[in-house]
Design goal:
Structural class of chain A: mainly alpha
CATH topology of the largest domain in chain A: Tetracycline Repressor, domain 2
Organism (chains A, B): Actinacidiphila guanduensis
CATH superfamily of the largest domain in chain A: Tetracycline Repressor, domain 2
Keywords (chains A, B): DNA-binding, Transcription, Transcription regulation
Number of domains of chain A: 2
Number of strands of chain A: 0
Helix content of chain A: over 70%
Protein name (chains A, B): Transcriptional regulator, TetR family
Largest interface: A-B, 28 and 28 residues
CATH architecture of the largest domain in chain A: Orthogonal Bundle
InterPro entries (chains A, B): DNA-bd_HTH_TetR-type_CS, Homeodomain-like_sf, HTH-type_TetR-like_transc_reg, HTH_TetR
Shape of chain A: elongated
Oligomer: homodimer
GO molecular function, one term (chains A, B): DNA-binding transcription factor activity
CATH class of the largest domain in chain A: Mainly Alpha
DNA sequence: AACGTGATGGCACCGAGTCACGTCACCGCG
DNA sequence: CGCGGTGACGTGACTCGGTGCCATCACGTT
């Protein structure tokens, strides 16, 4: 069962828990699933669950720190001559490039669960607000003043989330980065038309 | 109706609970305050607390439904010839006019508590997202297409929250509505400068 | 005087989250 | 070979947010 010279415990405990959680949430809903039951399906216990995730909700949003960081660093890494919107575009490239197909596969299921659970939508709104705040700070670091920095950061988050949502739909052939770039262009056009 | 011989229970139960909660949150922090203690200070019990508020967090955000509604209706009530941004301006007027001095007095204390409690900031982010979504829907009702509707709605929420925050600071002599209008203008300028 | 009503208290219960402590394999070391 | 340290996990008790059911008791009504 533990092929070769593996450790004492099955590896990938956190991932097993996350999969069990997503499965159960899809089957019985978020509120109808207890942490005990998630741990049980993963062959573990409640205590171990909370050792791997700070809370029941976080099990679905785990592993986004890397994406968050790449997004923010993409702003800082943009050439110094870039305008705010060009920096946002560069950050979108940096953020979309490393996204894997596996994440696309989970995206649809995850979106369905989140959409049907106010508590999770709340968590998502907060994560996006936090990301936007960090992006705005990175833009201010480049000398962009408020409220332009906050606005540009909001455009970035909006373009990415919209693009990811479309990318997860079947029949979408384009690259995530391509969609994100187009979303940003459309936002820019709508913004210009607002006056 | 309650004159002379008052009723069996002290009136304003919900308000007493809300005041007790805000006091205790300011004294001991949000996480360090139990619902039992809030109810105790109000001379009531936990059960009664949950009869008046759907949750511990909601005690601070109670009474915002009316503001939310006026804001959204302000969009619909704008003249049919108004541009999206003009409709947003009209909605800001409709939303800011009925705000009382009492709400200003609580604003500062409330802001401090919310700022120091991630759980409450999360709730606030969600409420703002929900408001923005409703405003965007009202704009779409007027024929504004996405993503322009969402962007304009975001500007509205941003202008209001920024204005309210400034309005709560001491030494601020202007009207809430005036500040909101100026915030909107500044956002408009920053938006135009983004390209 | 009897009755219905409505806001409240009391109580049992569930689930999320925390904590202290025990367990057991693996690892390094003598 | 044995021995103690380490790290991941289990166990059980606990707190607290939140729900549901039933009892209470003043008030108004009939």
């Amino acid at each position: 069962m533990w092929g070769g010279a593996m450790g004492r415990w099955e590896p990938g405990t956190g991932e097993r828990l996350a999969r069990a959680a997503l499965d159960l949430f899809a089957e019985q809903g978020y509120g109808g699933t207890t942490v005990d039951r998630i741990a049980e399906r993963a062959g573990l216990t409640k205590t171990t669950f909370f050792r791997h995730f700070p809370g029941k909700r976080e099990v679905l949003f785990a592993g986004q720190e890397a994406h968050h960081r790449r997004f923010v660093e993409g702003i800082a890494a943009a050439p110094a001559t870039a305008t705010p919107l060009e920096a946002v575009g560069a950050a979108l490239d940096a953020a979309t490039a490393p996204v894997t197909r596996a994440q696309r596969a989970m995206g649809a299921r995850l979106e369905a669960v989140v959409a049907s659970t106010p508590e999770l939508r709340e968590r998502q709104a907060f994560k996006r607000a936090a990301l936007a705040a960090d992006l705005a700070a990175a833009l201010r670091e480049r000398g962009v003043l408020d409220p332009a920095a906050s606005l540009a950061a909001d455009l970035a988050v909006r373009a990415f989330t919209g693009a990811f949502s479309r990318w997860c739909r079947r029949g979408e052939a384009r690259t995530l980065g391509e969609i994100a770039r187009q979303e940003l262009r459309e936002l820019q056009i709508a913004m210009a038309a607002l006056e």
